[in-house]
Amino acid sequence: MARVLVVEDDQFVRSALIRHLTEAAHSVRSVGTALEALREVAHVGFDVVILDLGLPDLDGGEALKMLRGITDVPVIIATARDDEAEIVRLLNDGADDYLTKPFSVEHLSARMTAVLRRSRAAAAGADAPSRVIRVGGLSIDPLRRQAELDGASLDLTRREFDLLAFLAGRPGVVVPRKELLAEVWQQSYGDDQTIDVHLSWLRRKLGETAARPRYLHTLRGVGVKLEPPR
Description:
Layout: E1 3-7, H1 11-23, E2 27-31, H2 34-43, E3 48-51, H3 60-70, E4 75-79, H4 84-92, E5 97-100, H5 105-124, E6 133-135, E7 138-141, E8 146-149, E9 152-153, H6 158-168, E10 175-176, H7 177-183, H8 192-205, E11 216-219, E12 223-226
Parallel strand pairs: 1-2, 1-3, 3-4, 4-5
Antiparallel strand pairs: 6-7, 7-8, 8-9, 10-12, 11-12
């Protein structure tokens, strides 16, 4: 059972989500505005938030940024918007997953299960001894979610860190894009643009470019690998 906050202003959609999640034995609270959502999260411990973007008082994208300022609770975006650039931006801003309406209750359940599994696994490992990954001048601590390059701290977004840590854990191994989508984004399908955008941002922070790579190497039509500079 999970404690779920549904943030949705459409009463029909809201009622359907509450009914489905309750039938699945989850504990559900619901609000219709961004400000109510912020108040709920500040005072109640939730396992996951399902957040609509078209809220009456504040755009859901702004609400997401404010939520990330006060909590690390997993957030699944649920909205009718399907613009690829906006999806990438929201994932970069801290969303854990994204569902485009209309979606089936089975699809929502699968995404919730994946998000909660990752969240609980991270919590279970929080007190475990830290295993730092070192590749060349890169030093990555997956448990503390800290990364350094040549002793300097790297300011990475959540998804950039996940991508870097996953590749660094397999140095020299070419990872297919399909595997990156499945393991880093927890998606069985998606657009390569999402990976390309994050790789571009990550390269910039590592001081390299696609034309002059140091750590990140793309093999066209095959995948991506991370290895120390030669």
